What we know:
Blueprint: H1 6-13, H2 17-25, E1 34-37, E2 40-43, H3 47-64
Antiparallel strand pairs: 1-2
Amino acid sequence: xxxxxxxMAAEKLGMHRVNLQNAIKHRKIPAPKLLKVGGISxxxxxxRDIERARRAIKTTKKKSH
Length: 65
C-alpha cells in the first residue's frame, strides 16, 4: 500500500499544505491519525484517505455556495 505525506496529499487535492492543515484543524476534512516516527508526528495518507478528503471538500464547497 502506497502512502503519502501531508504535503503530497495537499498537492493531490489541489491545495496548499497549510490550507489542508487548517481544514484538518477545523474538522472540515477527515485525516488519518498522527503517528510518531522518530519522535516526529506525521500523517501517512492513503489513496482512500485522499479520496475521503476530496469528497469532504466538495461537500463543504456546496454548503458555502
